[in-house]
Give the backbone structure.
Amino acid sequence: MLPALDDLLGSARVVSLPLVSRFRGITVREAVLFEGPNGFTEFSPFEGYGDAEAAAWLAGAIDFGWGPEHPALRDAVHVNATLPAVPVAEVTAALDRFAGCRTVKVKVAEPGQSLTDDTARVRATREYLGPAGRIRVDANGAWNVDEAEHAVHAFAEFDLEYVEQPCATVDELAQLRSRVKYMGIPIAADESVRRASDPLEVARMRAADILVIKAQPLGGITAALHLASETELPVVVSSALESSVGISMGLHLAAALPNLEFDCGLGTAALLAADVTDRPLMPFDGQLEVRRITPTAHLLDRHAADADRTAWWLDRLARCHARLSGGYSPE
């Protein structure tokens, strides 16, 4: 059953965590943390998301704090480094934060930047990794089909593992996949899974080779595991730039999956300049230990959001709770 709103608000803490560098247009990541019977959990939909979409994130947070606990099939998960759209001169310092990671996801198609900038960043990443490392690029749906095809050709020399969400729509992904399939570069879908009314449409339309799944946006570990079981495509578990509490949710999802072919995008605590725990989930030897996070009291105090932002988030939580109250079950 859905916990009472007072049960959520009773332990809720709103935090504001600075980032090491600008990431997808933001320099601070805000989140609500609260505690359920299973431990601490996180509610942190991005600010621009409406209540209908954000309610799925709250369902995910509740599933992690109150829902069933799924058996872990592994005690550590290999993760990729995530490289923001930084200048080439900053690539080495950015990637040094991801100790031992053999895979890098490079952010591309940043507003105000060009394909030339992206290509230079990917080239610098290949030079950093050497020939054995794996590179994937993520455009967050910013290209049209022609732009995406041109970019895939520009990056081909760098031996890409896959291209993540190059275009915004399922139809565009299907068109692009048909154009570049001969190149042997897979297409991965992220937003077309987690922001879709039908998360499996992209698989049925043969518009992608890989699905990127995120526990919180999909309504929790239970729902994400069900989705993964319904597709024959391989999945990559990724984070949504959460604190270590939210990343722990993704780790528990990755640990419960029977098949985990790719390194997961869960090393993103390295993008934060501050976290809510003295033992953040930072990569070591390219891996993260699967564990729950209990926030450290003095860090919750140090990074507490101001009164206005706290009120904004708690009001949002209440609105999303009201949306879920019509019927919730972490099946």
About this structure: The first strand starts at residue 13 and ends at 23. The chain has two domains: 5-68+297-324, 76-289. Residues 307-324 form the longest helix (18 residues). The mean pLDDT is 96.
